[in-house]
Each structure stands twice: as C-alpha cells, then as structure tokens.
Amino acid sequence: MLKIVRTTPYTDQKMGTAGIRKKSTVVEQPNYIENFVQSIFNVLGGVEGQTFVLGGDGRYYNKIAIQKILKMAAANGMKKIIVGQNGFISTPTSSRVLLDNHADGGLVLTASHNPGGPKGDFGIKYATKTGGQCSSAVSDKIYAETKQISEYKTLDAPDVDLSKIGVQKLGNMEIEVIDSVTPYVEMMRGIFDFEAIRKLFAGGFRFVFDAMNAVTGPYAQRIFEQELGAAKGSVLNAVPMEDFGGLHPDPNLIYAKELVDIMYSDNAPDMGAANDGDGDRNMILGKKFFVTPSDSLAILTDNYKYIPAYKNGIYGVAKSAATSTAVGRVAEALNIGYYEVPTGWKYFCNLMDSKRITFCGEESFGTGSSHIREKDGIWAILFWLNIIAATGKSVEEITREHWAKYGRSYYMRNDYDGIDVDLANKLMADLEARLPSLKGKTFGQFTVSEARPFIYNDPVDGSSTQNGLVVYFTDKSRIVYRLSGTGTNGATLRVYLERFETNDFDKNMQKFLEPLADVSRQIGEIVERTGKAKADVLT
Ligand code: VG1
Ligand code: CO
Predict the structure, then answer these.
(1) Residue 17 CB–ligand 1 contact under 6 Å
(2) Whether 98 contacts 63, CB under 8 Å
C-alpha cells in the first residue's frame, strides 16, 4: 500500500568528494536515508518508468537501507531495480551493470575506505545514467532539495528476499536480483589476457590478495583463484562482514597491516594486493616492495600495449592535481593527451565520455580506465598481473625500470585529522590569500617558483572548479593543500608532498620528504593553528 510520509529536512546532506558519507548513527536517524533518496528522485523530476541499479559493500545498515530504498522506488513508480544478490555490489560492478542495462541511475551504499559498523561510517554514492557519480551542479540541486523536503513516498510492504537470483515484483516494480560477480568477471576477461595470467600462476607465481572483509572477497576468489588458478587461500579476509571484522578497509601500508606483514616477510609471495570497502581502490606490493599509486598509474600507462584491450592505442591520461606528476612524463613520452583534474572521480568522466582519455588515477590508491566510470581495484591488479605475465619481470623490476627511464617522484600524503572545521577553513582561506606573496621566497633548500589555487576548467561542459592550493618550487618539488571531502570527524587537512629525483632511487621516502614536510607546515602555519607538530597519518 502506498504511503506518503511527512518529514522534516536535515541540513547536512551535501555530497562531498564521493556522495554523502556520515557516521552510522547519523544515517540511522528517522527518515535520514528516505529524505536523501526522495530528494534525488525529486530532482530527477520523478523516477516513473525508470530503471536503477542498487547495492552496497555489505557494511552495517546496508540491508536496512536497501529495503527502504526498494520500497521508496516502487512507491515512486520506478519500473525496475537491479540489485546485487544479498544486497552486495562493488562500485566498479555497479557502474558496469548500469551501463550494460542502459539504466537511468545507480545507488551504491558505501562509505568506501571508511570503517563500518554501528560506530563506523555509512554513505551513498549516486550515479547518473553515464555510469559515473553526478556532477557538482546536480549534487547542488539535490542538496537544495534535501533542505526543503517535506514528504516522501514509500510502500507498506514486507521486506524483499534478496538471497535468490531472479525476478520478483514489489508493487508494480520489477526487482531483478543478479549475481553481480559474473558481469564483472566477463568484463575483465574482455580486457586482459587471462590465458597468459593463468600460465603465470601455473608456473608457480605466488600471489596474495587482501579483501579486508569487504565487498571484493567473492569477486577476488572467483577471478584469482577459480578463473586464473592462483593457489587456494590466496584471497585473505574473503568473507564480507558488516563491520569488516574490525578492519579499516583502506588499502594502504598502515591499514592493510596483515598483507604488509606477509609481503615484507622473508618468505614473501611475488605480489600482494588489496582493495578498499567498495572495491574501487587498490594497493600493489612486490616482495618487500611498495608501489605508490602515483607510480602505478604511470607504469600502467607506459605498459598499455601488453593489454589486449588497449594494444591498438590509448587516448590520453588524467590524474588528480594532488597525484604526483609521474604519469605526466609518460604522457609526454607517449605523446598522448594529459589532464589534471580536481580530486574526485566524477571529474574524469567527461574526459572519458569525450574520448580524451583512456586511463586515469588518483594518489589515494585509485586507478581506472574508460571501461567504466569509476575507479576499479581488481582491474588495476589484473593489469599488473598481465604486465608481469607478458614481460616475466617482477613488480620491483618493472618499477625500477620505470624510474630509470623517467626519474622518480618521491611522494607522500600527510593527513592532519580531526581539526575544527572553521579553523581548517580559515587556515585554507588565509593560506590562499598569502599565496601571491610566496613567489620567489626561499624556505631552507626550496625556492617557490609559483603558488596558486588549483582551478580546473572542464573542456567538455565548461564548468570551473577550484580544489586545493598548489605551491611549486624551482627544483620541481610541489606541495598541494586541500581539505578532505569524505571525512566524518571534523576536518582533515591533506598535504601532498612531491620531490623529483633522476639518479638515486633508493632514498628513504619519509626522510627525503621530511624537509619538504617541514616547509609545508611553515607555509601553511599548520603547527601554530592546529596545535599538531606532525601529521596524524602518512600514506
Ligand atoms: C578521498 C580521496 C579521493 C577519492 C575519494 C573517494 O577524498 O582523496 O582521491 O576520490 O576519497 O574515494 P577526500 O576528499 O577525502 O580527499 V572512495 O574509494 O569513495 O570511493
Ligand atoms: Co572506495
């Protein structure tokens, strides 16, 4: 039975870098999810007759939110919803299923790499029919709607059983429960040389993948173990859990500790990898060897010809401004287009749709290509495996050859967490005002050549976005400052540090970047303003 429910608006439903991301306790408030979802439907002018894709990374509240959304969709006259079995779908798969089915939109229930559970975080990413997350113009409209919404539509109906694959009805709406792993596997098979990777594993190549108890476990077992023949048990933490078993599903050297310990042990496998909560991020490790995401993007781009789907050539490549400049050198050598965009995957989408780029990536462990409109964790890992299979070289050899050819960008991100929001905004505003005065100034061994806000003018839709502040130095070093758009605890100041080196590739990363980190604190007045002598998290 159709029900119209009166509601009062929340004022905090503005989307950040990737959808809304909140504490679980926030989304559990009455009508919180309902207000947000109805606001999306309203901004679309209603969803009557439309088809959506729905699913999440399995975290706490996934099940509850899915039932709410199914009932609301039916009540709003949606024609069909395609849902992952048991409500699971990875972000990359959602994008693929959306495109394959010419769906009108998609909702992925995830807070990505943030912890899950009653005390963790929850979130929603909203994708349009392009397969990518909506533009800022659209999210602004949705935000405005959330501030004035007064009612939503739902159905008085029992919960839907999402465990069985197949088609069922809820009111007049069709619900198709799919095995979301299969379309993803088929897509990967169409891109990479599975036969070559199978031979690699058959030849004894040892591999370990950490799913961190999040959504990619079933995908990884099927692809790496069943399809490609990696040893049984190569996939760790493969069963998705509501609280990720207490893990923080952020694939980096700090949070993927179990994997890092294995890869830095004396009996380390040949390659290690991990994904984040919703499967769009990746970390790549060799034996006692870490590949920075910025280098990974550069290396994949330089080796595109080993991959069947790209061997006939690629369009350009793009990176977020905060990402190191390593891929820029590759783009120049390959003579392909090169773009720098704000942080957030949505900025790559116009470039892919208009065939300006094939590959793109961010320093935050995200790489991807135009096969979908989201970053793709398993794709990046298969890309590495395919290069290794084709060249017979190790992760470390491939990376070292890259540095020898192009030089090395030593690169790290420093995060200052849990800062008061007003204080953080003022720090950034004051720094922006000081930027012009920095030019020509010397800080220790570093002299500023240029300092300016990062402004991106989208070549496709003409929109202009400012995101972060960049300080360039005469020795090709760079510092980028920006505030996180995905945090749920005060503000996070992210400071990205980069130094370029053409000879010595064995410097200690942190030690080499420390003088620049000091300069970043000085220029940003970070210590005085935040009371923090050092960053909280280094990645
Ligand atoms: C962070 C990363 C950014 C990434 C975003 C979403 O955003 O820095 O590169 O696109 O998370 O990632 P921010 O604003 O906190 O720096 V995820 O894996 O949602 O899907
Ligand atoms: Co993610």
Answers:
(1) yes
(2) no
Ligand 1 atom closest to the CA of 320, numbered from 1 = 9
CB of 484 shorter than 6 A to ligand 1:
yes
Angle at 310 between CA 309 and CA 311, to 5 degrees: 105
Q: How many CB atoms sit inside 10 A of residue 93's CB? A: 32
| pTM to 2 decimal places | 0.96
Catalytic residues: 112
Which of helix, strand or coil describes residue 272? Answer: strand
Cβ 96 under 6 angstroms from ligand 1:
no
CATH of domain 184-406: 3.40.120.10
Pocket test for ligand 1, best of 296, 486, 488, 494 (most atoms within 8 A of CB): 486
Domain residue spans of the chain: 2-179, 184-406, 408-538
Amino acid at the residue 203: G
- Can you tell me the distance from the alpha carbon of 245 to that of 116, in angstroms, rounded to the nearest whole number? 9
Look at ligand 1, atom 16, and give the residue with the nearest C-alpha.
484
Q: If you measure from the C-alpha of residue 189 to the centroid of ligand 1, how many angstroms do you get, rounded to a whole number?
A: 28
CA distance 513 to 15: 33
Q: Is 483 in the pocket of ligand 1 (CB under 6 A)?
A: no
With a 6 Å cutoff on the Cβ, whether 344 touches ligand 1 is: yes
With H, G, I as helix, E, B as strand and everything else as coil, classify residue 522: helix
- Judge whether 539 and 274 are in contact, CB under 8 Å: no
Residues near ion ligand 2 (CB < 5 Å) are: 112, 276, 278, 280
Q: Which CATH number fits domain 408-538: 3.40.50.80, 3.30.310.50, 3.40.50.11540, 3.10.450.50?
A: 3.30.310.50
Which CATH number, 3.40.50.720, 3.40.50.1110, 3.40.50.300, 3.40.120.10, labels domain 2-179? 3.40.120.10
Question: What token pair was written down for 297?
Answer: 């993007």
What is the SS3 assignment for 347?
A: helix
Distance 213 CA to ligand 2 centre (A): 14
Over its length of 539 residues, how does the chain's per-residue pLDDT go in tens digits? Answer: 899 999 999 999 999 999 999 999 999 999 999 999 999 999 999 999 999 999 999 999 999 999 999 999 999 999 999 999 999 999 999 999 999 999 999 999 999 999 999 999 999 999 999 999 999 999 999 999 999 999 999 999 999 999 999 999 999 999 999 999 999 999 999 999 999 999 999 999 999 999 999 999 999 999 999 999 999 999 999 999 999 999 999 999 999 999 999 999 999 999 999 999 999 999 999 999 999 999 999 999 999 999 999 999 999 999 999 999 999 999 999 999 999 999 999 999 999 999 999 999 999 999 999 999 999 999 999 999 999 999 999 999 999 999 999 999 999 999 999 999 999 999 999 999 999 999 999 999 999 999 999 999 999 999 999 999 999 999 999 999 999 998 888 999 999 999 999 999 999 999 999 999 999 999 999 999 999 999 999 99
Residue 290 is encoded by which pair of tokens?
């870490």
